[in-house]
Amino acid sequence: MSEKAIEKKAPLFDRIFKPEHIVLDNGHTVDRPRSRTPLITLILLVVVIISLQVTDFDFGILIKRGHELGVIMSQIFQPDFSYFPKVVKPLLDTIQMSLLGTVLGCLIALPLAIFASSNICHNKVIVSILRFILAITRSVPTLIIANIFALMYGMGTYAGFLAITIFTIGVVAKMLYESIETIDMKPFEAMTSFGATTLEAFWAACMPQILPTYLSHSLYCFEMNVRASSILGYVGAGGLGLLISERVGWRDYRGLGMVLLSLFVVVVFIDFFSDWLREKLS
């Protein structure tokens, strides 16, 4: 192969910044590629500068108004415990719609993940369509989905429950079909060769392999949904979000501290419970 042909196959960076020729002690010459670090650093620096200009970032204002954060945080860290009775019902609504949305979303995600797996479903059209739909459900923020459902079905936890369900379907199905594509397919192929349907063979040969992963994904999604559902009230989808918006609007930061403290305790409990359950499943 000629030197020109080799040069054309070289990366664009190496064609612009020619490699350094180094003569070894034995007289042979080798080419050492130029470091890409200065170029990458320069590009990142330009991107940061442009971003600062577009967002009107002012470090002086950040320093000047920084003490306001301390004032707010000092009140948040002194929660008003007398406000707790008003937190109980929205907190239970948040947990209930997160739990119900997670359970329903995970149940729907399982068959979708099966038919979105290229090693189970060999119809490329079906696989592509399902993956495209799942990509859309993941790309749209839960807050926007909840806002749409709130306009369709009215204010309340029903809209939040539907939004969490849609989000759960997209996330769990995505993680699950990726896990399905890594399993041992020999038992599945053996069962289908004996006349079992795709679903029968999957349930008997593949489900035992992915069950711990499926449950782990479901628990992880439940943790995310509890956090996400706490702000759905901003668009009228019920739960703690409405209470948080109300306390911020009234500048009642001690009441807000009580809301956040209640949410923190619930999230920590769920995290510990999920870790314990994952250990049992593994």
Automatic annotation (TrEMBL):
<dbReference type="InterPro" id="IPR005769">
    <property type="entry name" value="PhnE/PtxC"/>
</dbReference>
<feature type="domain" description="ABC transmembrane type-1">
    <location>
        <begin position="91"/>
        <end position="274"/>
    </location>
</feature>
<feature type="transmembrane region" description="Helical">
    <location>
        <begin position="95"/>
        <end position="117"/>
    </location>
</feature>
<dbReference type="Pfam" id="PF00528">
    <property type="entry name" value="BPD_transp_1"/>
</dbReference>
<feature type="transmembrane region" description="Helical">
    <location>
        <begin position="158"/>
        <end position="177"/>
    </location>
</feature>
<comment type="similarity">
    <text>Belongs to the binding-protein-dependent transport system permease family.</text>
</comment>
<dbReference type="InterPro" id="IPR000515">
    <property type="entry name" value="MetI-like"/>
</dbReference>
<keyword id="KW-1133">Transmembrane helix</keyword>
<dbReference type="GO" id="GO:0015416">
    <property type="term" value="F:ABC-type phosphonate transporter activity"/>
</dbReference>
<feature type="transmembrane region" description="Helical">
    <location>
        <begin position="189"/>
        <end position="211"/>
    </location>
</feature>
<keyword id="KW-1003">Cell membrane</keyword>
<feature type="transmembrane region" description="Helical">
    <location>
        <begin position="129"/>
        <end position="152"/>
    </location>
</feature>
<keyword id="KW-0812">Transmembrane</keyword>
<keyword id="KW-0472">Membrane</keyword>
<feature type="transmembrane region" description="Helical">
    <location>
        <begin position="226"/>
        <end position="244"/>
    </location>
</feature>
<dbReference type="GO" id="GO:0005886">
    <property type="term" value="C:plasma membrane"/>
</dbReference>
<feature type="transmembrane region" description="Helical">
    <location>
        <begin position="256"/>
        <end position="274"/>
    </location>
</feature>
<protein>
    <submittedName>
        <fullName>Phosphonate ABC transporter, permease protein PhnE</fullName>
    </submittedName>
</protein>
<dbReference type="InterPro" id="IPR035906">
    <property type="entry name" value="MetI-like_sf"/>
</dbReference>
<keyword id="KW-0813">Transport</keyword>
<feature type="transmembrane region" description="Helical">
    <location>
        <begin position="39"/>
        <end position="63"/>
    </location>
</feature>
